[in-house]
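Thread title: Can someone regenerate the structure for this chain?

I was given the following input by a collaborator and told the matching structure tokens would be attached. They weren't. Posting the sequence so someone can regenerate them.
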Amino acid sequence: MPTFPPITVRQPQPHDLVDDPVAVCGVGTGFEGQFSARVRDGNGDALAEVPIMAGGAGSWRNFHTEVPIGVVPATAQGTIEFFDPAQGGRQIFKVVVPIVFGRALIDPYFGFAQHRVVVGDRLSAIAEQAYGDPALWPRIFEANRDQILNPNLIFPGQVLRIPE
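Best answer:
Regenerated them for you:
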């Protein structure tokens, strides 16, 4: 009989740009059929937490829910945690997924466009094209921190997310 991890997250994937509410889905199980999802900003502050019903104890179930944040996060980078809140306040089977808050970059947030980097591109030039202001390049940098380590080094062929 195959074994599965107690919680498998399908959405959001690591470094996804998320909206408010944060849509989550996956497969899981938990004590008495319940586990939780908690959103934190990059400072570690909890922004929201919701219980998720995953079925009876020992059974597996697909889950889909939304975690409403209700505020513009203080940081663009954050995490969503999934865990079984075991007795005594312990959090077992914890899965932590790094995410990027769209509303922390641009509010209101309506998703993102994609831009394929070509020779000669700079984040400031892409920001001027996207927003009419080259000084807004940090939005693009923060939205793509998983693939840009230095904002002065982007490479032809990279596909960047441009928050809208």
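The chain has a mean pLDDT of 91.
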